Amino acid sequence: MKKIIFLSTLAVTFVFAGCQPKEEDFHVEPPAPRAVQAPRFVPTADSTITARQLRLWKDANPVLDSLVYFYRDSFAVADPVNKLRLQEDFLKAQDKICKLAGLTGGYIEYKWIMGAITNPRNRELLEGNP
After folding, report:
1. Cα separation of 52 and 94, whole Å?
2. Mapping DSSP to helix (H, G, I), strand (E, B) and coil, where does residue 45 land?
């Protein structure tokens, strides 16, 4: 009798062990990251700047000036390959500073604002009466 109980317990164990759901591999590959393109800067046709642009330009200006002091000795390098790499790093840093300041067009927008400041249409903005 003990043998029958043992064998039936063993058989039931095997049946239930075989009936457990299989753990399927549901590994899903995440989509490949895409480079997010910032909106391209398009200057206004009449060269008018906004108060926000002027404020962001003023915020980026001192940091860009300090970047020049940081890199000034680097441009005196004699090796042309190293000098070119440093110039590329400098240009990337300029663009990054402008974007972090809030100018979505980066250094291109910064330079455009610098040129557009002289436009007579922006006189009121510069005088503080927008």
Report:
1. 19
2. coil
d(CA 5, CA 113): 91
Distance CA 76, CA 56 (A): 31
Pull the structure tokens for residue 75: 């441009």
pTM confidence score: 0.65
CA-to-CA distance for 84 and 20, rounded, in angstroms? 65
pLDDT one digit per residue (tens) for the chain, 130 residues: 655 665 556 555 555 555 555 566 666 666 776 666 656 788 888 889 999 999 999 999 999 999 988 888 877 888 888 888 988 999 999 999 999 999 999 999 999 999 999 989 888 888 875 5
Judge contact between 81 and 69, C-beta under 8 A.
Answer: no
What would the two tokens of residue 50 be? Answer: 């906004």
Please count the residues of the chain: 130
- Asked if 117 contacts 126 with a C-beta cutoff of 8 angstroms, the reply is yes
